[in-house]
Amino acid sequence: MRIAIVGGGLGGLTLARILHRRGVDATVYEREASRSARSQGGSLDLHPESGQHALAEAGLADGFRSLARPQGEEHRILDPTGRTLIHHEPQPGSFSGRPEIDRSALRDLLLDSLPADTVAWGHRLAAATPRPGGGWELTFHGGHRAGCDILIGADGARSVVRPLLIDVQLSSVAMLVELTIEDVDRRHPDLAELVGPGNLWCVGVSQILAAQRLGDGNLRVGISVPAGSIGSKRALLDLFADWSPRLTALIEAGDGAPTPRLIETMPLGTRWATRPDVTLIGDAAHLMPPVGEGANQAMLDAAELAAELAAHLAADPGSAIRKYEEAMFARIHPIAEMSARVQAMMLSPTAADDIVRFFSRT
C-alpha cells in the first residue's frame, strides 16, 4: 500500500514520522529543493493537547523539550503609548504550559527522525489523476511521475490536493507584514528589553504591531492591518505615525525590506464527502486565522490520521479515512470559530479593551 503525502511542512512530516514509527512507509513530496531552501518563519507555541501530544506519539517529546523555550511563553500586551495592559509570565522552567519552539528547529527535529529517503525534495505537484484500478497517478512540475494508493494533502493554504475533494473560495481577512531584527541583544538592547524573552503585542485601532523572540537571537516583527497593500518601511511608519517612538523603533530597526503576506481563511464549517483514497490535513483541510492553532491542529490531524491508518490500512483504508475525517470535522469547527473571533477582535476599533477582557477570563 503506497502512501503519498504532498507537503513537507509540520503536519506532513509529523504524519510520516508517526506512520514510520508504526511500521507504515510513506513518501513525502515537497516542492522546496532542500530543507534549507527558505526560511521557515518564526516560533510557535505547542499546546499540550495537540502539538505536544502529536510529538509524544512521534516519540519526539524529549527532543522537543531539549529545543523548546518555556520562557518564550511570556506575553506582553501594550497600547500605542507603550502602557502595559497585560503581562503574562510563565512559571520559570516549566513545560506544563505552551512553550515556544522555532519552526525551523521543530521541522529539523522531524526531518532527522525520518529515513533519509522519506522526503522527495523538489517535487511540486501539478496534477493528480485517478487510476482505473484505484489510487492516483501524480504528475510533478518538470515531468516526474509517481503512483500511490492513498493520497494525503498536507500542502497548505493553496492545496493542489484539496480540489479533488471540494471547491473552496478563500477569503482575505488581513495583511501581515513581517520584518526581522538580527542579533537584537547586541545591536538593539533596548528593543530586546522591550520584547522580553517571549511575545509582544502592541494593540491599537485596527492595528497590531507584534514581535517575538527567536532561539537564534533574532526578533521577528509582524504588523497586522486590515487587508490592503503596504509596500515599504516608510509606508508602515506613516501608518503608525501617532504611536510611541519606543514601539515604532521595532519597524525602523528591521533588516531588509518588509515582507507582506495576505492572511486568508476557508469558510467555517467546510467539509466534504469522504473518498476512500484521498484526504487532507492542516491548512489544506481547515485554513483559519493564525492565532496559535494552525500548526498545532495540523500536527494533531497527523497523529489522529496516522493512528487510524495504522489500525485499518490492511483491511479497510477507506474506513480509516472516514473515521479520521468525522473526528477532525467535529474537533475543528469550534476551534475555527474561536480563531475567527480572535482575528476579528484583534483588528477591531476596540481591540485593546476586547483583548484585555479576553485574556482576563482565560
Task: Please characterize this protein's 3D structure.
It holds the Pfam family FAD_binding_3. InterPro entries: FAD-bd (IPR002938), FAD/NAD-bd_sf (IPR036188). Keywords: FAD, Flavoprotein, Monooxygenase, Oxidoreductase. GO terms for molecular function: FAD binding; monooxygenase activity. This is FAD-dependent oxidoreductase. The chain is about 35% helix and about 25% strand. It is of the alpha/beta class and about 350 residues long. It has a domain at about 5-70 and about 100-170 and about 265-345: FAD/NAD(P)-binding domain. A 7-stranded mixed beta sheet has the order 5-4-13-14-15-12-16, with helices on both faces. A hairpin with a 4-residue loop joins strand 13 (about 200-205) and strand 14 (about 210-215).
Q: Summarize this, please?
A:
By secondary structure, the protein is α/β, with parallel strands linked by helices.
List the helices and strands and how they pair.
Elements: E1 3-6, H1 10-21, E2 27-30, E3 43-45, H2 51-57, H3 61-67, E4 75-78, E5 84-88, E6 100-102, H4 103-112, E7 119-121, E8 125-130, E9 136-140, E10 145-148, E11 150-153, E12 171-181, H5 184-187, H6 189-195, E13 199-203, E14 208-213, E15 219-225, H7 233-239, H8 245-252, E16 255-265, E17 278-280, H9 283-286, H10 294-312, H11 317-346, H12 351-360
Parallel strand pairs: 1-2, 1-11, 2-7, 4-13, 11-17
Antiparallel strand pairs: 3-6, 4-5, 8-9, 9-10, 12-15, 12-16, 13-14, 14-15
Overall CATH class of one domain: Alpha Beta
Total strands: the figure is 17
Any guess at the CATH architecture of one domain?
Answer: 3-Layer(bba) Sandwich
Element-by-element helix/strand order: EHEEHHEEEHEEEEEEHHEEEHHEEHHHH
Adjacency order of strands in the biggest sheet: 5-4-13-14-15-12-16
